[in-house]
## 1
Amino acid sequence: QRQHAQAQARTHKTRGSTNLRGNQPVQSSRLPHRDAPPQFSTPLCPPVSPPPGRGDRRRRMAAAGAATPVGAAPRVGLLYDDRMCAHATPDGEKHPENPERLRAIRRKLDAEGVASRCVDMKAKEAKEKYIASVHTPNHIKLIRDISSKEYDYRRNKTARKFNSIYFNEGSSESAFLAAGSVIEVAEKVAAGELSSAIALVRPPGHHAEHNEPMGFCLFNNVAIAANYLLNERPDLGINKILIVDWDVHHGNGTQKMFYSDPRVLFFSVHRFDYGSFYPCEGDASHCFIGEGAGEGYNINVPWEHGKCSDADYVAAWDHVLLPIAEAFDPDIILLSAGFDAAMGDPLGGCCITPDGYALLLTKLLGFAKGRIVMALEGGYNLKSIANSLCACTKVLLGDNFTYNSPRMQPFESTWRVIQMVMVCNVLFLCNFSLAINICN
Ligand SMILES: [Zn+2]
């Protein structure tokens, strides 16, 4: 299956593309409206709905012994630092991954009175020894030096060697700040100083590989923070990390970094389009489930086409992510929070609403004592990312939220994808003791 997926991806491979745009979405019929999602069965593992009360944050957190007492306002960290706007195209060319993304989000959070309710955090540069947990010395040296004068005359030429990358004089500092910022907020959440946190960082990280920047990403910020918690702060008691990547693109870099590591469960839901959607690699398929000790700890939910909406994502949550999170029982959740599956995004071609993001986030709050760290990844429609992140921030702050949707209609293909994922991961699911409930 893997060979087939890889061969399929190679056919469509478009390495060297200058942006993350995939093919145009194909049409797929929507199922007629149902009051309840259709149930399907596999030989060993029928689908599961989240346990009752899963979305009841206060009750779940109280039961789990959360640090935030019931009734107390959650302490939500918000990290914004204008220095991460220094990374920009060298000659001012238009580019979807630009500094206005951070500023638009910040303006919205200020205008809604949301930022002032959060704990203000400042960015810190990551130490190289922490970045070295996922990147090679050559990669770190390149990103450290790329903004120096010695690169002035070959910076653009160097950027062109990579896939969808630009550099300027501010890139080095921004990259070190982005990585260090996710470490900073993750550490505070893990230590219980904050209930949850949002790191508004750029450049994004989830495409960055061990030895090369890729897809607008220089360092893999979330992967670095995960390794920091596991390796550098054992005193914080973080032994199992769930990384949820809801960016519309596959988190190829993060997947590789934890592919054989059972301490990190990586879940990515993304457009795949049979291997033709960026990054156009076969390893974004559902067949790639991890290897060695990490076998089963890598979950890909690969959409077959665009236009996926709240209903499709909720189905993936209810039938795949939530049962797996229940079984895995993470100590903290790191969210690779790209918003390029949002309605109106110029690259993603999907249509999650701000309320849809809020609902997906609400469903995660019952795990890991509500310890969630959101790190910005993609998302290129300024209005969409600002509205979506604002809705998510309100969820973390504990505001009452009701999702009003009279019609939840996943694509027919969504059920097919979910079924494939369930079959591929059935062994993994059944290895957990809690999964007995799922598999029997
Ligand atoms: Zn993306």
## 2
Amino acid sequence: MDGDSSFIRSDTTQAIAQLRARYPWPPERPEFSEDWFGWLADTTAEMLTGQCPPDARLIVECGTWKGLSAKALLLHAPAAHLICIDTWLGSPEHQPASGNQLWADQLPDLIEHCRANLWPWRDRVTLLRANSPDGLKELAELGLSPDFFYIDSEHSFDHVTKELNLITLHWPGAIIVGDDYNNAAVKLAADTHATITGRRMVSNPSAFCFPGSPEETP
Ligand SMILES: C[S@@+](CC[C@H](N)C(=O)[O-])C[C@H]1O[C@@H](n2cnc3c(N)ncnc32)[C@H](O)[C@@H]1O
């Protein structure tokens, strides 16, 4: 079916519909006021808008929290459907034991805040509640072909490596931007992925990017 774009489009639409049936939005907007507390450094926002094609059709974000970066992506790529993969349970640094009470206090209602914030875009957003490697495998099993990935979930070497390996394995031509290049574990994971795969990587003080390579697109 190569070259039959109408087939590809309807196939993608069906797969997204299947996914949305598994992860439905509630019938009503949760009763929380807008609260955009989150993490999106200026240099990361620049990397996102500089590398994500404005005409992207399918974007995947690993690590959404309350939706700050998700909103930036939705505004930047107005035709895109956005799949947000998150446990909405917080990362290790958000847990009460980490000692940051401001972050820990936000965990109990995290997904409800996210749903309330992203409610205006709910027709274009699917909130896939899962450990991100499992969520990525679910998208691969559905045969989805995202154009662009943003990774900002758990910042350990092993976790970032797992996400990068899965994305490069299933979608070798897709563009990947990652946050927290200023975190030593994330930087090591991104640098190691570049060395092992031979993929070109660009970076700025807070973000890294593996630009897409059209010839690798399946
Ligand atoms: C730094 S926050 C994301 C910030 C967000 N991008 C923003 O714009 O504010 C990290 C998110 O990753 C999620 N997370 C942590 N570990 C995860 C995992 N193993 N799988 C999926 N999500 C995870 C957390 O629940 C949290 O919402």
